[in-house]
Amino acid sequence: MADPVVPEPDHKDWTWTLDRSCSECGYEANNYDRSEIGAKIRASAATWRGLLSGGDIVSKRPPDGDPNSPVWSALEYGAHVRDVYELFADRFDKMLKKKNPKFRDWDQNKAAVKGKYHKQDPDQVAYGLAVAAGAMADRFDKVSDDGWARTAERSDGASFTVESFGRYLLHDIEHHIHDVQQGYEQLRKKK
Ligand SMILES: [Zn+2]
Predict the structure, then answer these.
(1) Which CATH number describes the domain made up of 35-190?
(2) In this model, does residue 148 exceed pLDDT 50?
(3) pLDDT recorded at residue 1
(4) Nearest to 72 by CA among 128, 169, 4, 174
(5) Does pLDDT of 108 surpass 80?
(6) For the chain, which residues make up each domain, given as ranges?
(7) CB neighbour class for 108 (10 Å; exposed up to 12, middle 13-18, buried from 19)
(8) Total-model pTM
């Protein structure tokens, strides 16, 4: 199978979701305590395990299963989320060790092509996602009061604390769960 067309890069700045609820997935960044971030990450990993164990549909791209559709399959989203957790764990460690580190851009589409997300095994992706989510959750569980206030900057100038970084990360993960659920709805309607 040829490599599928890469979706349009997502240039949207999602940092606004830290201030108000997301109109697409309904996520509200500030309606829970920061001490719950770790537990919420673990819970999301369980949801992903379910989403990635649906049979053939897991590797189909919505809305109609066409491999050249511009929307990622559940499998591709799952591999992306696993890699996001790994990237964010690395960034998290830098935030705690260095003073206001700057994060370089991460091209998620390049990562998807290079990692051949569409050819990965869904069970292995689910397992890798759970491991990466667990490692990330452990980090958040151990943050001290001072640690929550440590800062970092993104290459576009957006500024984060460890706390807002965690809330932002959770939105990313929850939003992709919503993406996958919507994709499944569209794919099932087609049958
Ligand atoms: Zn959202």
Answers:
(1) 1.20.120.450
(2) yes
(3) 45
(4) 4
(5) yes
(6) 35-190
(7) middle
(8) 0.90
Tell me, in angstroms, the distance from the centre of ligand 1 to residue 180's CA.
Answer: 12
Q: Do residues 38 and 138 make contact, with C-beta atoms less than 8 angstroms apart?
A: yes
Q: How far is the CA of 142 from the centre of ligand 1 (A)?
A: 26
Among 132, 146, 128, CA closest to 86? 132
CA of 168 to the centre of ligand 1 (A): 10
The answer on pLDDT for 81 being more than 90 is yes
Pull the structure tokens for residue 45.
């990993």
* CA 26 – ligand 1 centroid, Å: 6
Strand partners, 102: 153
Confidence of residue 47 (pLDDT cuts 50, 70, 90): very high
Q: Above 70 in pLDDT, residue 10?
A: no
Interacting residues of 53 by C-beta distance below 8 A, sequence separation 6+ = 122, 123, 126
On the question of pLDDT at 22 being above 60, the answer is yes
Query: What integer is the mean pLDDT of 99-118?
Result: 92
Query: How remote is the CA of residue 183 from the centroid of ligand 1, in Å?
Result: 15
